[in-house]
Amino acid sequence: MAERVKTRRYNSPRRREQAAATRRQILEAAQRLFESSGWSATTMAAIAGEAGVSLKTVYLAFETKSGVLRALWNLRLRGDEGEAPVGERAWYREVLEEPDPERQLQLTAKNSRMVKERIGPLLGVIRSAAPVDADSAALWNRIQSDFYENQRGIVETLHKRKALRRGLGVERASDILWTLNHPDLWQLLVGERGWTAEQWERWFTEAVRAQLLRAD
User: Fold this and answer.
1) Does the pLDDT value for residue 22 go beyond 50?
2) Is the CA virtual torsion 184, 185, 191, 197 positive or negative?
3) In terms of pTM, does the model score above 0.85?
């Protein structure tokens, strides 16, 4: 009886690198179109054309237009295509582990500015897609809940260190930090009023210190 030969799955590092490069190319093309033309006007075919790849390649990589948007959001929010959520990222863990409350809020401001510069108009695209696309609506809701929980995580460490202003509980402090750090407020000040990112970071640092930290 002839010996059965096992087939070996071909999976070279070079092929993985090429696939990752193509994926990034598609996401960058999608972002240009989403931000210039809007959610409704941007089709999968348009994304393929902008990226210089076949339509089949786009579908194989992301399945749906909302899948493209979700992958693009994760990339811009986290800074790379790794699977770890924000709560497990080194830059967020650094904030939680910083023992000095004032320095902790400085780091929060620095990281928040960094993320907001990346997500920019993309958040508006997701907001506009949410009323007409169920997957995008789910993404929008998850963004809001995750963002709140991440702000609450910072507040809880301040509370444990007894650094919160007298009479200020975790719930109210979380609401304050969430509001001051919300992308909508960034859009109003930076997008509408023309503040620079540096001005926003300085203002945010001063505002959260005054609102959250004990004076004594």
Assistant:
1) yes
2) negative
3) no
